[in-house]
Design brief:
It is built from 26 helices and 26 strands. By secondary structure, it is an alpha/beta fold. It folds into 4 domains: 60 residues, Single Sheet (N-terminal domain of TfIIb), CATH 2.20.25; 275 residues, Rossmann fold (3-Layer(aba) Sandwich), CATH 3.40.50.740; 191 residues, Dimethylsulfoxide Reductase, domain 2; 120 residues, Barwin-like endoglucanases (Beta Barrel), CATH 2.40.40.20. The strands form 6 sheets. It has a 7-stranded mixed β-sheet with strand order 5-4-16-15-14-6-7, sandwiched between helices. A hairpin with an 8-residue loop joins β4 and β5. The longest helix is centred in the first third of the chain and has 19 residues. The chain starts with 19 loop residues before the first strand and ends in a 7-residue tail after the last helix. It binds ligand MGD (2 copies), iron/sulfur cluster (SF4) and molybdenum atom (MO). One ligand MGD binds next to α5, α13 and β21.
């Protein structure tokens, strides 16, 4: 007898009439999947598929990648530049010439009246590296403002800072292939299955072939926590205590790698003295993980032949984000787990090109990991670009999170936002709204005309989106991959590269400074500049990148096919080649729950949506699975407050309030709530966002709120601010 499917008609998937497949790289997350977009005979994008021989995704895509071609026809794309005198006037459509003349004139007026740094620029992790590099040249070499940063301060700044403190340079040392070699994996503050589904698939595949323990540290019972061997529901903001305690046990039980420590690190004695204070009994009282579990995990990690740690925003977005990263590096240095197969500190990055901006945008320094603080680097770049060396500041300027307060105090008068939406993504948005109102001039350069920041802009510049332009992205494992142009931008929208180049022409500048027009020419400059640097691109070309489906830097004459790992020889980027072990005392400085505001407020992502939903909010298949903002509340806490499942509830913090639909679930602890970050006028009306002292990254994931039951549910539904309807 036959069972199941064989007795029925097989499911039929309609064949799409694809005439041509175009190779490109996914424009959502930092996994860096190779993707092909199928075009029909009219040149319309009708489908997407994973590239079978791509080393990252081997033919797979997550659901955002599967529907990525739908972006080309999504609603509310900006098609024409717009202009107005005051932010409350109606916008007028205008020509590119007028919009760019006005922008250049306003930048120059503000700089002349209030000083060069009175005009600020905030960019992103989502444009192409060639665009980042060109923007950097414009900002540092032509406009000359030091208040130039990226939204990566909301995202990767703590990882960058932690890598620099430990190893002397930024740059994630590991790769996805480490999953195939590791004997123990610790994942801290990362929800891989939802946020990096294909990295998760790689991990799961490796683990299915060869058993090794996966330990997930997260206050919330995430999808990742549910598949882990052990879930450690750490108290919010106390990962540093846990990490110090793991090191304590490893040293006490002699599980550390003395030879490695002696040969490749400095600072062991001070470090050992500090972690001696973090015995598991004391640590358990602070971080909420019982002492036996701490000892058990330390032994698993210390005894593994190769052990690795991955982390994402649960570490970076914290008042000790940078310290958390250094603590992870400390753990791996004392166990000899850096630069070896399966032994690494791998920061899972966020946006598609979070790495490209670090390498080439000059936001925090100069191209190819050069710094403003280094006189030789300044001299080299001044000579290369043909600008006066004195034109460069000798120290980096304000971070994104300090630029907004500087607008409040009147120090900054003008702002240019490129591919970022701080009206939704910054903490304490009521304050951001008031801040933007104060600007004399705001220019918004975005692919979508309905992005919230346009409410306060004077000029709107419509930009081409992923796949409407060409260039490269770098993923989590330092793999540079090519984004080929699939379609033309809609209407008069232009690539960010074109916009930067046109603007550059409107400033008086040194004759030597060149702004090449094509991405391939810009790439040549980047290759040349990176030769001999850690992020060496000199062995790459756009075509080689497509042939190899991405190459990992350093990629040069000696490593023409790229390098899987950094620091394999134990040589770090400090002058004496040694890494630093750094003692990290834990200081409890969060806004914590109290009688008035008894719940921890946590926030993060869902698999269907991308950030502030300017993109995924318009893709039917994504938005329909997750159309509504919600707040996760533990059923026992809800019962005490009389809050029903799916009822609207008022959530109040010291900043503001929001009305959100309750989801009762045991994913969150009785003293904690979780709200996805994707919805406008929602969690970021409430979040405090205290800053990490090194990275200036906000602690988005720890603040305090109270909940109020709403009697009039019908009224709550109609007055709900949080839903943006498309
Ligand atoms: N679908 C989708 N994928 C994305 C994105 C997206 O918007 N949508 N965005 C991309 C970007 S830019 C980024 S940065 C990444 C983010 O990727 P992740 O960091 O994995 O995602 P989040 O959901 O922000 O946060 C991860 C976890 O941190 C936990 N957490 C909160 N507080 C603490 C704490 O004190 N300690 C610990 N250990 N954990 C804590 C949260 O409970 C949450 O489960 O995702 C990328 N991928
Ligand atoms: N509460 C809370 N807040 C958070 C977080 C959290 O976990 N919790 N996470 C933080 C993190 S990690 C991040 S990365 C930020 C993200 O915050 P944002 O960067 O502000 O969010 P996005 O929605 O990705 O904004 C990108 C904008 O660029 C536009 N765009 C896309 N591609 C292009 C292009 O090629 N050119 C141009 N010119 N425009 C383009 C999009 O339409 C969109 O408006 O949010 C942060 N905010
Ligand atoms: S995992 Fe990330 S890179 Fe891969 S398809 Fe999904 S969103 Fe794109
Ligand atoms: Mo991010």
């Amino acid at each position: 007898m036959l069972f199941g499917r064989r007795t029925k008609n097989p499911i039929k998937i309609p064949v799409k009439p694809v005439e041509k497949w175009v190779y490109t790289t996914c424009g959502y997350c930092s996994t860096g999947c190779s993707i092909e977009v199928g075009l029909d005979k009219n040149g319309q994008a009708i489908t997407s598929r994973g590239v079978a021989d791509a080393p990252v995704n081997r033919g797979k895509l997550c659901l955002k990648g599967i529907f990525e071609h739908e972006l080309f026809n999504s609603a509310h794309r900006g098609q024409v530049p717009r202009l107005r005198e005051r932010f409350f006037d109606p916008y007028q459509e205008t020509t590119w010439g007028t919009a760019l003349d006005k922008t250049a004139a306003e930048i120059q007026r503000i700089q002349k009246t209030h000083g060069r740094d009175a005009f600020a620029i905030i960019s992103t992790g989502q444009i192409l590296t060639e665009e980042f590099y060109t923007l950097g040249k414009l900002a540092r070499g032509v406009i000359g403002t030091n208040n130039y940063d990226g939204n990566t301060t909301l995202c990767m700044a703590s990882a960058v800072s932690g890598y620099k403190r430990s190893f002397g340079s930024d740059g994630p040392p590991g790769c996805y292939d480490d999953f195939s070699h590791t004997e123990c994996l610790l994942a801290i503050g990362s929800n891989l299955p939802e946020q990096h589904p294909i990295i998760y698939w790689r991990l799961k595949e490796a683990r299915d072939k060869r058993k090794f323990p996966i330990i997930v540290v997260d206050p919330r019972v995430t999808v990742f926590a549910q598949m882990a061997d052990m879930h450690l529901p750490v108290n919010p903001g106390t990962d540093l205590v846990l990490l110090n305690s793991l090191a304590h046990v490893i040293l006490k039980e002699n599980l550390h790698d003395q030879d490695y420590i002696a040969a490749h690190t400095n600072g062991f004695e001070d470090f050992a003295k500090l972690v001696a204070q973090y015995d598991p009994t004391t640590a358990a009282g602070l971080c909420g993980i019982d002492e036996d579990t701490i000892r058990h995990v330390a032994r698993l990690y210390g005894k593994a032949g190769a052990a690795m740690t991955i982390w994402t925003m649960g570490i970076n977005q914290s008042t000790h984000g940078s310290d958390g990263v250094v603590a992870i590096n400390n753990l791996n240095l004392i166990t000899g787990n850096i630069g070896k197969p399966g032994g690494t500190s791998l920061s899972i990055t966020g946006q598609c090109n979070a790495m490209g901006t670090r390498e080439f945008s000059s936001c925090s320094g100069l191209p190819a990991y050069r710094t403003l603080e280094n006189q030789n680097d300044r001299a080299f770049m001044a000579d290369y670009w043909g600008v006066d060396q004195e034109f460069f500041p000798a120290k980096r300027g304000l971070f994104q999170t300090d630029i907004f307060p500087a607008i409040e105090t009147g120090q900054i008068k003008g702002l240019w936002l490129i591919a970022t939406n701080p009206m939704s993504s910054m903490p304490n948005t009521p304050r951001i709204r008031k801040t933007l109102e104060q600007l004399e001039f705001l220019v918004v350069q975005d692919a979508y005309a309905d992005v919230e920041t346009t409410q306060y802009a004077h000029v709107y510049l419509p930009a081409a989106l992923w796949g409407e332009k060409a260039g490269v992205f770098t993923n989590t494992e330092r793999r540079v991959n090519i984004v080929r142009q699939v379609m033309n931008p809609p209407g008069e929208a232009k690539s960010d590269l074109w916009i930067f180049n046109q603007l550059a022409k409107r400033f008086p500048k040194n004759a030597k400074l060149r702004f090449p027009e094509t991405p391939a020419e810009v790439f040549e400059e980047m290759r040349e500049l990176s030769k001999g640097r850690l992020c060496d691109y000199s062995g790459m070309t756009h075509d080689r990148l497509e042939q190899h489906r991405g190459l990992q830097w350093p990629c040069n004459d000696t490593q023409p096919n790229g390098s899987a790992r950094l620091y394999a020889d134990g040589k770090f980027e400090y002058a004496d080649d040694k890494a630093k072990l750094i003692p990290l005392p834990f200081v409890d400085n969060n806004e914590r729950p109290d009688e008035q505001y008894p719940f921890w407020l946590n926030s993060g992502r869902v698999v269907e949506h991308w950030h502030t939903r300017t993109k995924t909010g318009k893709i039917g298949n994504l938005n329909k699975f997750s159309p509504t903002p919600y707040i996760e509340i533990n059923p026992s806490a809800a019962a005490k407050l009389g809050i029903d499942h799916m009822a609207y509830v008022r959530v109040i913090s010291r900043r503001s309030d929001a009305v959100i639909m309750a989801q009762l679930t045991e994913r969150v602890a009785p003293d904690a709530v979780f709200i996805p970050m994707h919805f406008h006028e929602c969690v970021n009306r409430l979040a405090l966002g205290l800053l990490d002292p090194y990275s200036r990254q906000p602690a988005f994931k720890q603040s305090a709120v109270r909940l109020e039951k709403i009697a009039d549910q019908a009224m709550a539904a109609t007055s709900n601010l949080t839903a943006r309807s498309f």
